[in-house]
Amino acid sequence: MKHLSPHRRPHLLTSYLLTLSLIIFVAVLHGEDFIYILCHPLVHHPGGQQQQQQQRQVSNNKEKDHEVAAFAIGENEEGCDIFQGEWIYDDKWRPMYAEEECPYIQPQLTCQAHGRPDNGYQNWRWKPHGCSLPSFNATLMLEMLRGKRLMFVGDSLNRGQFVSMVCLLHRVIPENAKSMETNDSLTVFKAKDYNASIEFYWAPFLVESNSDDAVVHRVTDRIVRVESIYKHAQHWKGVDILVFNTYLWWMNGGKMKIMQGSFHDELKNITEIKREDAYSLALQSMLRWVEENMDPHKTRVFFATMSPSHWRSKDWGDEEDGNCYNQTTPIMDPSYWSPGTSKSMMRVLKNVFSTSRVPIALLNITQLSEYRKDAHTQIYKQQWGPIPPEKLADPRSYADCVHWCLPGLQDTWNELLYAKLFFP
Questions:
Q1: CA 418/CA 74 separation, integer angstroms
Q2: What's the distance, CA 316 to chain centroid?
Q3: Which of 18, 85, 119, 371 is the most buried (most CB within 10 A)?
Q4: In this predicted model, what pLDDT tens digit does every residue of 37-93 receive, in sequence order?
């Protein structure tokens, strides 16, 4: 062990005494500060606390913003289901436009022009229980669509909703700043000043089928390729808001013909499966495409549920052999559900979309539309051909109890779309 030499000890002692004296002097001078530090070693400065709270708040806000749906500018009233409610007669604010003021309505939907004697079907307003729908603002809608594409994809019922949307918007657009063009399955309405388009794409099954011709598609022997969606979906790429529907065309029997391979093959491989199974496969194909191609932070996807028909008036307690013909008021029984609207197909819809990795908003139009036996085109439309004398003698025999007059029910569908898009 090494020892310090005797002559170094006084110098070392002197250094210790000087250091101790300095510590005592500082402690006396700043005694309160030392006591505070010793007694509160884990307390942070109030300013740091506030800064941390602000940082947490910013972080929470960022997380919240991350969850906000694209296009949303507000929120729906808490606990409000806008699809549950009642129809209120309103001749002050309905209709939202006049039939003759919208040149884009197909003659199959212009009921007044084709002699319908009543117009009360235009005046019913949907009122959710316990809350109200946000008022449809055409200018706001167009501003939010600036530089964007809104597309409806499906059958003629979805085309009716597309035309309704065009009618709701076109009034605030100058005449020289809008256009409508159709090219095969795609119809495009452009609001030029907004660089916005509202579009409709004909695909009654969503997947490829032998009914894909937008004009000549009335085939009774319907065949689908349930896993082939890209023929249609290539036209959906780049769309910012998609509104799908498919239901009516599946309802022509208990089974569907499914094709493996191409419609161009000389020998076709066709099998029959249950309608619900075919529907499920088609929806899964659509869902896979959406998951692969739609960015939920920038785009929105909607699916409109089944549009009901009213073929048997006995279903709502009316005459035995009647239908929607000559019906002028809604069904007021809140529990009414037509036996013709397939709950099994609705369950398929629920089961498939419950597996989605991206949000798909349902426009649950079925129940509220069930009440509207009065809103169909009935016989007041352009017919596809001459009506035989025996049918003319009984208007019920050729009444259309599937499609809807415009203006009318489908304007409400678009009010609901507007609410779910901007106030989810």
A1: 12
A2: 30
A3: 371
A4: 333 333 333 334 443 443 444 334 434 444 789 999 998 888 899 999 999 999 999
Show the tokens assigned to 112. Answer: 């007044």
Q: How far is CA 362 from CA 243, 279, 301, 354, 420, in A?
A: 9, 17, 9, 11, 9
Residues in the chain, total: 424
Which residues does the annotation mark as catalytic?
156, 400, 403
Give Cα separations from 192 to 143, 169, 170, 180, 189 (angstroms). Answer: 12, 13, 11, 11, 9
Residue 208 has φ and ψ, to the nearest 5°, of -65, 140
* Helix, coil or strand: residue 386: coil
The Cα 290–Cα 300 span in angstroms is 10
How is residue 8 written in tokens?
A: 């170094």
Distances (CA, A) of 187 to 198, 218, 235: 9, 19, 11
Predicted model pTM? 0.83
CA distance 141 to 171: 13
User: What sign results for the dihedral spanned by CA atoms 404, 204, 163, 382?
Assistant: negative
The whole-angstrom separation of Cα 129 and Cα 110 is 31
Helices (H), 215-342: 230-233, 275-293
- To the nearest 10 degrees (0 to 180), the angle between helices 343-353 and 275-293 is 30
CA–CA gap between residue 64 and residue 156 (Å, rounded):
39
* 104, two tokens: 């884009």
Between CA 154 and CA 304 the distance in angstroms is 10
